[in-house]
Amino acid sequence: MQSQLRSINLTELETLLKSWSFPTYRARQILNWLHQKHITEFGEMKNLPKKLLGKLSESSLVSVLKLRETPKSNDQSSQKYLFETQDGHFLESVLIVQGGRNTVCVSTQLGCKMKCSFCASGMGKFVRNLTAGEIIEQVSRVARTLSPLEVGNGRDRSLQAITNVVFMGMGEPLDNYDATLRAIKILMADWGFGLGGRRITVSTCGIIPKIEQFVKDVDGRVRLSISLHSSQQTVRNELVPINKRYNLDDLMSALEQLYRKLKREITFEYTLIQGMNNSPEAASGLARLANRIHAKVNIIPYNPVREADYQSPTPAQVKTFCALLEKKGVRVTVRQTAGRDINAACGQLRLDREPIRGTSGPKLICSIKFNLPPIP
Asked: Smallest Cα–Cα separation from 90: which of 343, 342, 366?
């Protein structure tokens, strides 16, 4: 069975080249083609000997995703990328263009086991975890479609303008822990994408043991966002069912320990739903939790999903809720609704062309929870 070349790290590739009697410096050349020039075929690796290219093509795959569709939102602020996997399933990534940044939001699973009641990702069946190579290729394929920057009199594909990567697409990243961690290490490596850890954000609904392990494994360098959505146990049980296993009290205790140790900002993601979690009492409860760890709150006005019986807040309700938080000293941002017209807004992406529970037939829509953290 052929391996996925984008999943391999520098040490593993050097070991492989040694076993084939090729010099190890070729490893960095290969990885540069993959992660800086974003090639999709071995034939594009112009500085490698044919014998090495032959060995690579026999044993590995340089591309495992087929790009099927790239709809762009009317305001040009976001673009969806629909990919087909080798086993015939579909996943989506999103490019968000905002504030001088090009942010790629990647999926980590085909479907989602967490079953958050307001999010379309969990409304279809869970199929499988994505590999690190499939996660990384999402970033490369998006980068490949961007216009290269001018360099002197020519163009250099190594200078693609991807500035941020957020793990907020289909799936719970920490439920696919090994692949997520491997992909992040490739994104941060000097032989990989060379992104600083503060330009990478991982969103989780609150799997406490995995959060603690993840922070340790990335040395606290990667931004962390918590999909909170309610400060009340009973409400969060409905919105985020994993709360029944890892409840708010335990989650906050774990986050307090992390904050004391790292002194790094954590973001609370809060999908605002009319009549569910937008009361003054809800705002007060959220402020209490945020102030315990000096968390920033990212308010996400609910984006409709036809299978969920929830209502979006009015602009006035969003403004009032944010004002209540700010009055209590909480730093608040409001997620701009981007991509709703192409079903790429928060909560609207799901496992493409997979049947939804209680329905039949293919569905060409997907669910995403992207967050755009400020760059220091």
From this structure: 366
Residue 119 assigned ligand-binding role: yes
- 8 Å CB contact between 81 and 144: no
CB 348 within 8 A of CB 354: no
Q: What is the DSSP string of 309-341?
A: --BPPPHHHHHHHHHHHHHTT--EEE----SGG
- Using a cut of 0.70, tell me whether the model's pTM lies above it: yes
CATH number for the segment(s) 3-61: 1.10.150.530
Give me the catalytic one of 105, 205, 322, 346.
346
Q: Among 44-58, 88-102, 132-146, 200-214, whose mean pLDDT is lowest?
A: 88-102
Which segments of the chain belong to CATH 1.10.150.530? 3-61
Question: Please, how many CA atoms are within 13 Å of residue 317, restricted to the half-sphere of its CB?
Answer: 17
For residue 1, how many C-alpha atoms fall within 13 Å in the half-sphere facing its CB?
Answer: 3
Classify 66-342 by CATH class. Answer: alpha beta
Pairwise CA distance, residues 49 & 58, whole Å: 14
Read off the pLDDT of each residue in 358-375 and give the average, rounded to a whole number.
38
> Which of these is catalytic: 14, 92, 269, 354?
92
Catalytic, 346? Answer yes
Q: Give the dihedral sign, CA 208/214/220/226.
A: negative
Domain with CATH 3.20.20.70 in the chain: 66-342
pLDDT tens-digit series, residues 302-317 = 988 877 889 999 999 9
Q: Determine whether the annotation assigns residue 116 to a binding site.
A: yes
264: its two tokens: 């790094």
Which structure tokens are listed for 213? 């392990």
Average pLDDT for 8-30 = 98
CA distances from 180 to 171, 197, 219, 365 (A): 11, 14, 15, 24
Q: Find tokens 């922070």 and name the residue.
A: 215
Active site residue 366: no
CA–CA distance, 289 with 249 (Å, rounded to integer)? 10
∠353-355-359 over CA atoms, to 5°? 135
- Any binding-site annotation on 73? no
171 is in an annotated binding site: yes
- Whether residue 112 is annotated as binding a ligand: the answer is yes
In contact, 236 and 229? CB cutoff 8 Å: yes
